[in-house]
Fold these 2 entries.
Entry 1:
Amino acid sequence: MSFTKPKTTIEENDTVILYLTVQSLHAIDVVPFIKNKKDELVENVFQTNYGALKVKDLIGMKYGSRVTLTKGWAYVLQPTPELWTQTLPHRTQIIYTPDISMILFQLEIKPGSVVVESGTGSGSLSHSFLRAIKPLGHLHTFDFHEQRCDIARYEFKMHGLNDFVTVYHRDVCTQGFTDELDGKVDAVFLDLPAPHLAVPHAMKALKNSGGRFCSFSPCIEQVQRCCETLEHNGFVEIQTMEILQVEEYVKTKVINVLDLDFVKTKKPDEAEAKDLKTPREQKKYVTTQAPFTMPGHTGYLTFATIPPLFAR
Ligand SMILES: C[S@@+](CC[C@H](N)C(=O)[O-])C[C@H]1O[C@@H](n2cnc3c(N)ncnc32)[C@H](O)[C@@H]1O
């Protein structure tokens, strides 16, 4: 599958990204037939604003090629964790790429890392963890919602990621992570309503030299409680940050060119000064401008470290 390695040709059961516009992308499972509401097997036809696509026609096509729809066309792309985050079916709130990039960087995730995550939710962050830890690492992901666990397992299997991930149906605040993981984990990530309750369990799971911790919380009260518990449990380097992505707009600006030589050599009298304000020459520049409004708060990221050789 192309989540695990690059591919040139689309095969049955691949997940592909149908790119219509920058704002309109869809993830499609390449299965020729699907069940309708009456539980009958029917041809899989995907509807878009540019018309319908018979999904079976994708089989054998090259990734990156243009596909004809009944009222237009689109591109079929290989899936990546970033495109999956943009297109996945939401079962919960998800973590988006600006936060994901900081999480991976701060948790020092690399090939071979052993990572614990809770909750699994819609698996948005999980896919980025998986790309970073393959081929030798492992993701242990926990959620107390059974159906979300089942769907996540199905999606990981469809994406060829089964060997690198284990999904646990478990309440991590009351039951913690499994005993087999004690002292073996490089990084713990929490996206929970009450992360402070899972902090002692994270402490148990993390390696006792330099293990990294992160919690994502929308509310500052959750952050405060989590920081207090982290400190109480012996974590150090406790740091909370918020990631705000600013998108600059490209635009053309017309700028008046002032006669600077004149200004430098002579102090202009009143009439000349007025005249100077009247532009003699104008130049056009392609430049950028910060947006007047921007997407606001998503959540706070709290990071912490277990000090080397911390005695539990
Ligand atoms: C916001 S979602 C996580 C989204 C995920 N980070 C993503 O990027 O797709 C939070 C998840 O935590 C799970 N959850 C909440 N409390 C939990 C607990 N005590 N133990 C395990 N899972 C829990 C919920 O069922 C939910 O699926």
Entry 2:
Amino acid sequence: VPVDLERMMCRLISDFQRHSISDDDSGCASEDYAWVPPGLKPEQVYQFFSCLPEDKVPYVNSPGERYRIRQLLHQLPPHDSEAQYCSPLEEEEKKELKLFSQQRKRENLGRGTVRLFPVTITGAICEQCGKQIRGGDIAVFASRAGHGACWHPQCFQCTTCQELLVDLIYFYQEGKIYCGRHHAEHLKPRCQACDEIIFADECTEAEGRHWHMRHFCCFECEEALGGQRYVMRQSRPYCCRCYQALYAEYCDACGEPIGINQGQMTYEGQHWHATDACFCCTCCRLPLLGKPFLPKGGQIFCSRGCSLGGDEASASDSCDSALHGLRPQDGRRAPPRHPAVARSISFADRPLFL
Ligand SMILES: [Zn+2]
Ligand SMILES: [Zn+2]
Ligand SMILES: [Zn+2]
Ligand SMILES: [Zn+2]
Ligand SMILES: [Zn+2]
Ligand SMILES: [Zn+2]
């Protein structure tokens, strides 16, 4: 872990510890672990961690410790609470971020506490899995969720990402517990480019994802795409020019590139212009748009008859006579043996402004 990242995390963790509402912070970390739930006897610490998958137990210098660090950064993004970790913000955005962060700490943030479930009591039902927690079991309690609410240690996880809540830090909202990242996203959109929460009045939305207006740019050339036509590929926007240069497909019939404004047919890795001239029977040129067709040897045909004729034609170089000889006696077209309908690809339309 780079030094500045480590320093940032220490700050972050102490910040969360100051603000969280743990009922008992008196415990000290046992030296084998990078972190332990506070207030437990050593055998209870062992009992707690034995409930978790081995690779998620934060032993010092283990995959579990690296998992914990990754989760700290992922679940509690520093830029969700402090403007100094954000890309330059407008004054208004800084104010909104501060309010947002204060409000979440005041109303939603908590830290789970770990206790033995009292042996004298009949037990409880885990909020996550619905199974029994018996007297003598170790359980996690979250006071924001009400005093009866408890979880198995392995069940204390974010509703959205289903990861174990790192260091038991949770955000409670409407009966559910979330990690910091997903609680923030529950309230506000997150920019796909900079990973920061969007406080501006307007943003760009495409395919259910959001961007700051200033960050909705071509992934290749970084040209701003607000108000422009663009194409989404693997959740990233491209300007038409870059998309065409990088990803345009070539038509199997005419050999020309298929422009992003042109309709395209695709089947098993082959592409055609969605026109009668290009997407048609190789043998008789019958247009096949929206019709079943018979793929054979990388070519498409309207019928079994044409597909046989096609083979003969390329072998004998005499399409007409081969076709004539192969036509069914009663003159009706034989039905295709393996009909397939190509799906057509539609490109993203203009972006929607919220
Ligand atoms: Zn459970
Ligand atoms: Zn989450
Ligand atoms: Zn952004
Ligand atoms: Zn571009
Ligand atoms: Zn073509
Ligand atoms: Zn045909």
